[in-house]
Design goal:
The chain has 266 residues and is mostly helical. The chain has one domain (3-258). The protein contains eleven helices and two strands, in the order αααββαααααααα. It has helices at residues 3-20, 22-29, 31-42, 57-87, 90-95, 101-129, 139-163, 170-187, 199-205, 209-221, 237-258, and strands at residues 47-48, 55-56. A two-stranded antiparallel sheet has the order 1-2. It is elongated. The mean pLDDT is 93. It holds the Pfam family ABC2_membrane. It is found in: Cell membrane; Membrane. Keywords: Antibiotic resistance, Cell membrane, Membrane, Transmembrane, Transmembrane helix, Transport. It is a multi-pass membrane protein.
Length: 266
């Protein structure tokens, strides 16, 4: 079998394993939907905006949860899963087989792409049918959603593969990864409106991809009048592509430099 065929076989295995693990399923796949439900229930009577563009808090938090889903499905899921596979000897076993590393990466990234897509569709469906969120009708916005999602999930997936080299063991992976991602979510406008954060926090967040992914998602789901709340009073989708694409390259390079079937310090 060639490299791509082996990657597809790995993809099937990864998806089956993913949906069999309750903790991964709860804290990555269902977490954005649960958080959207909590925010919608807690602020059901509140709205944001002015005039005809006034929207519910459910609508406002939808793009934030969509961006967080990319981070969780890509960075958190892969960083913890690969660190655990290094610790329990799975990667050492795979290293003794003819499986090329590229096929392993294809399996990981494609499974994140597919599960992330299902997560996003489910998130949008729940927000619309359960919480009454009005979805955009302009086809161009869904084209923007497509490239933001694909670019975002690939960048986050590669960063997750690179981050998996940091934890010293599988047991410490959760303690290493989750606090970092929680910090990024708070400074990137996922749980708090980005425009209300201190300027130094906004500046710090602008160096990382999550802030730009959330901004890109807001351009899809929020009325154009809300661009006035963004830095520069514009959606800046070209900058979203530039920054997230840059992090994709960074993740690719770091993964290439750090990935080993067996830890050097093992």
């Amino acid at each position: 079998m060639n490299t791509l065929s082996l990657g597809m076989v790995r993809t099937k295995y990864e998806i089956i394993a993913y949906f069999r693990e309750f903790d991964a399923l709860f804290f990555t796949f269902l977490f954005p939907i649960i958080m959207l439900g909590i925010f919608s229930a807690a602020f059901s009577s509140q709205t944001i905006g002015t005039g005809a563009d006034r929207i519910s808090l459910s609508t406002y938090y939808l793009p934030a949860m969509a961006a967080a889903g990319l981070l969780l499905s890509g960075v958190q899921n892969l960083a913890i899963a690969v660190a655990q596979e290094k610790s329990d000897g799975t990667l050492k076993t795979l290293g003794g087989t003819p499986l090329p590393p590229l096929s392993y990466f294809v399996g990981k990234l494609t499974s994140s792409l597919l599960t992330g897509a299902v997560q996003l569709v489910l998130l949008i469906a729940v927000s619309h049918f359960a919480f009454g969120v009005e979805l955009p009708t302009d086809p161009a916005r869904y084209l923007d959603l497509l490239w933001i999602f694909v670019l975002g999930i690939l960048a986050c997936g590669l960063l997750g593969l690179a981050l998996s080299a940091v934890p010293r063991s599988g047991r410490s992976a959760t303690a290493v990864v989750i606090p970092v991602l929680l910090f990024l979510q708070f400074i990137s406008g996922v749980y708090l409106p980005f425009s209300q954060l201190p300027s130094w926090m906004q500046t710090l967040a602008s160096f990382f991809p999550l802030k730009w992914l959330a901004q890109g998602m807001r351009s899809v789901f929020l009325p154009d009048s809300f661009k006035a709340l963004e830095v520069g009073h514009a959606w800046n989708l070209d900058q979203v592509a530039l920054v997230v694409g840059g992090w994709l390259i960074v993740g690719l390079v770091l993964t290439r430099l750090t990935f080993r079937w067996i830890r050097k310090d093992a």
